Amino acid sequence: MPTSTFNIRMDADLKKGVDDVSKSIGLTSAAAFNVFARQFVAHRGFPFAVLAPVPTEDEFAKEMDRVYLSMRDGDVVEHELIED
Known about the structure:
The chain is mostly helical. The chain has helices at 12-24, 29-43, 57-72. The model has no long low-confidence stretch (mean pLDDT 92).
């Protein structure tokens, strides 16, 4: 079967993580991505749940601070209340 090259860009820390985990289970990163690609095709999508990460308490607090400061500074849009 002919092969093809697939180039992707990713964060250097993520690549190191992929390399490290792949090596720890006896695979190259390319082999790990081939496993993923085969499963992606077989499942006709992701072979696992893709969920938004749950923010840490610190991340949540920072976001609430950002929203509060934005509102305090008048960066808001009022909307009409829609009632059933």
